[in-house]
Amino acid sequence: MKVAGRCGEGSEGMVRVARGPRSAAMPHLVRGMHRVLLALTACGVVAFAGPARADELTGTLKKIHDDGVVVLGVREASIPFSYFDGKRTVGYSQAIAMQIVDEIRKTLGMTQLRVHEITVTSSNRTPMLLNNQIDLECGSTTHTVERENVAAFSDSFFQYAVRMITRKNSGITDFRDLAGKPVVTTAGTSDERLLRSLNTEKQLNMRIMSARDHQEAFSAMKDGRAVAFVMDEPIVYGFKATDPHPDDFIVTGTPLGYEVYACMFRKGDESFRALVNRVIVRSQTSGDAERLYRQWFTQPIPPRGINVNFPLSEQNRALFAHPNDHALD
User: What positions does the domain Solute-binding protein family 3/N-terminal occupy (predicted)?
Assistant: First the structure.
């Protein structure tokens, strides 16, 4: 059951209430008042819902409070999600991460909370999280069932297909055309797993290269060391849009699968999970997520004012209407 209501002056809040056994003896009025109380508590209207006391903190929030800093894992070239524009880290996912930082500040009552960014790759992001080198990563990390064994994931903030980018004159239109050819993807990604599975199942004999990061993978395709770069559809559209000669490339191929991005944090930290999801649900159900989407996918973005031209899909529209943390694999 979901209880939603207006909070404060113009803001909105939502609390998810676990459904328990119904009691026939419980008066309808009491049940209604209970729901209202829960909703007001989530919104911060009830008097005791103020900044958390230091001695009540646990997990990531306690670490952040004690250190006086929140450490974000950021990407260097996951355009337009999390990337360095020459001055700072920007992007759709980075904007979500900074909304979460603002919520941490309010929850802890620490207006001067510092933010430290550490650049991560697809290969090292999880070890750095588990080793407490970063507290939160909101970039282009796929939520998979397998990864739930080692890390926790927020409600999803983006759904996409896995496809490939290749040169327009390559003659490649689908994955069967990659048989016997050199193909590149990024090491440590779910795309690498999907590509290797396809290679084995269809006996395509592809020569698969695993690049350190997305930029290196795109460069390998562009330089001719690989005929195609297999990756998340919005990522390859980002590289196509930012290349000096975007018309030289096409994004093609029947999707290998559909996946979702989410923020990643340490397992077993329910208070931090609740905070992160509170931010994401509020953004998606208020219309702010759609505004962010338009800003980063359908309008000019820094540093060169390119437009990714990747309109909001029906899948993402449905995700925003019904926030959830379901992996799609």
Answer: 69-300
Tell me, what's the pLDDT at 54? 77
Name the helix (H) or strand (E) containing 191. helix 190-201
What is the topology classification, in CATH, of domain 54-157+262-321?
D-Maltodextrin-Binding Protein; domain 2 (3.40.190)
In DSSP terms, 13 is beta-bridged to 5
Does residue 281 contact residue 99 with C-beta atoms inside 8 Å?
no
Exposure letters 224-255 (e unless 16+ CB within 10 A, then b): eebbbbbbbbbbbbbbbbbeeeeeebbbbbee
- Specify the domain boundaries for CATH 3.40.190.10 within the chain: 54-157+262-321, 161-259
186 closest CA partner among 226, 213, 221, 215: 213
The span from the CA of 172 to the CA of 229, in Å, is 12
Cβ atoms within 10 Å, residue 312: 14
pLDDT at 313: 96
Q: What is the mean pLDDT of the chain?
A: 88
Residue 9's pLDDT is what? 36
Cα dist from 241 to 223, 225, 309, whole Å: 17, 21, 8
Q: Which fold has domain 161-259?
A: D-Maltodextrin-Binding Protein; domain 2 (3.40.190)
pLDDT tens-digit series, residues 252-261: 999 999 999 9
Q: Is 305 left (phi over 0), alpha (psi -120 to 50) or beta?
A: left
pLDDT per residue as tens digits for the range 152-197: 999 999 999 999 999 999 999 999 999 999 999 999 999 999 999 9
